[in-house]
Amino acid sequence: MSAGAALGAVPAGDDTASIRVWAPAAESLEVVAGGGRTPLERDGDYWQGTFAGDDYLLCIDGRQEYPDPCSRWQPEGVRGPSRVLDPGGFEWSDESWSGVPLDELVLYELHVGTFSEAGTFDGAIPRLAGLRELGVTAIELMPVATFPGERGWGYDGLYTFAAHPAYGGPHGLARLVDAAHAAGLGVILDVVYNHVGPGNEALRAFGPYFTERHQTFWGDALDYAQRGVREWAIQNAEQWIRDFRVDGLRLDAVHAIVDDGEPHVCAELATRVHELDPHALVTSEMEIDDWRPIDEWGHDAQWADRSHHELHVLLTGEREGYYESFGSVSSLADDLRGRGHDPRRLVVCAQNHDQVGNRALGDRLPEDALRVAAAVTLFSPCTPLLFMGEEHFETAPFQFFTDHIDPEIAEATREGRRKEFEAFAGFAEEVPDPQAVETFLRSKLAEREPDPLYRDLLRLRRELPRELETEADEDAKVLRMRRGDVTLVADFGNRRVEFSR
C-alpha cells in the first residue's frame, strides 16, 4: 500500500466520508451509520468506500460491530461509535510558528489529567505562559490516545488516532497546541507503538495486528511484518504532525518494537515524519547503551536513563531492583558528556513519569536531593527534561492509576502492581490501589511559583558554551563540571551543590 492511502474515515464533502480499513481476513465489511449499512469494496487486504453520517461502526462478516481501528474521535470512549473528524475545522493562529530546534530544546513532561484541577487540555492552557517565562521551550504530553475509562497514564491506549475524550477530545488538543505556540512553546507528544492496552479485542477482529514470535512486558507484540500494521503506526505519527501541528513525537519503549524488516519501522516512521515536516523532532525511549535510534534510525534524540539512575543512587543510596549496578560518579560524567554522541541528542532528567510513578508509592526526590540532580542535569549540555511540579519541589506523589472498565482487567492490574514490588524491601507499605479514584486525586499537581534555582539554571544554560569539562571523585562522591567560566561542584554524599566563576 502506498504511503498516501489514508486509513480510517476522511471527510469527502456533502456530509459523506471516504473510508479505508485494513481487514485482510474479513469476508465482508460494512459501515453502520445514519440508520443504514454501506457495504465496502475489497481492495487486496483493504476495504474502502464512501458513507453518509458522522457516527459509525464497522460490521465484520455480518456479525460483530466495532469502532474503526483508525478512529480519529471516540466521543463515548472505547466502546462507543467512531465519529468522523474534519481537522480542517480546527482554528489556528500559529501561522508564524516555526518550531523548536533541538539546540534550544528544554522539555517539560506533563500528564494532562493531573497537571490542572480540570484535568483537560483547556485546563493546561493558563499555565503555559509561566512555563515559557521559566525557560521551558516545549511541553511533552504523556500519551493522549483514547484508553479505557477516564483516568490513566495513557500507555494502554486502544484507539491511537483519537485524542482522549475525558481530556477534551481532538478539538481540545488542537486548542492546547495552538495556545502553546502562541506562548512560544513547542509540543512534543508521547506515542506508544510497542503494544496496545488490554481490551483490544476490537483491534484483533480486523486483522493480525499481533504476533506470537515476540513478547513485550506490557502485552502481545505488534506484528510489523504486516504492512497494514506499519501503516497504522506510521500514519498515526503523521496525523499528529500534520493535523494537530505538534512539533515532535516521543516514541515509548522502542526496544519493545521488534521488526526484522528493512528499514526498521522506527526508521521508516522517522523518515516519513521528517518528509512531512523537516522541523519535526522524533525522540525515543530506548534501553541503556542501545544507540540505534540516533545512530541508525534517524531519530533526533533519545532518552538517556543511565544518567538518571546514576544520580538517583548517588543521592539516595537505593540499590534495589534495576538500581543495583549504578552509583558511579565517573560513569555519570561520561553520560553528561554524551558517551561519544552529540550531547544535545541525549535527553536527561532528574525525574520523569517512570522514575517517580513506577515507584510503589509514587514518591518524588526530597528537595535537597532534587536540587543537586536538577543542577547537574540542567548545567549539562544534554537536552534536559523537567517532570511537572519539580520546578517548585512538588511534594504530592505521582502514583500509578488506571480506570479499567473490565472488572477482570482491573483486578489483574491491582495484583500485578502488588507483585511488581515484592522484591523491594523498602516498599513494605501497601501499594496504592491503581483503580481507586483517590490514587488519581493524590497525584494532582499543586499550582505554585517555581523556585529561583530553576529559573537561574535555565538562564545560565542559554549563556554558556556547550563544551563540558568534568572531574569525578569517586571516593568523595563529588563531581566537578565546567562550562566556560562557570564551575559546578555537586557533592552527592552531602546533597550540596555550588557554583563559582
Question: Please, could you describe this protein's structure?
Answer:
This protein has 501 residues and is of the alpha/beta class. The protein folds into two domains: 82 residues, Immunoglobulin-like (Sandwich); 367 residues, TIM Barrel (Alpha-Beta Barrel), CATH 3.20.20.80. Helix content is 27%, strand content 23%. Strands 10-11-14-17-18-19-20-21 form an eight-stranded parallel barrel, surrounded by five helices. Strands 3, 4, 7, 8 and 9 form a five-stranded antiparallel beta sheet that branches. A four-stranded antiparallel beta sheet has the order 1-2-6-5, with no helix packed on it. The protein starts with 7 loop residues before the first strand and ends with a strand.
What descriptors fit this protein?
TIM Barrel, alpha/beta, about 500 residues, single chain, Immunoglobulin-like, eight-stranded parallel barrel, five-stranded antiparallel beta sheet, 15 helices, 2 domains, about 25% helix
How is this structure best summarized?
The chain has about 500 residues and is α/β, with parallel strands linked by helices. About 25% of the residues lie in helices and about 25% in strands.
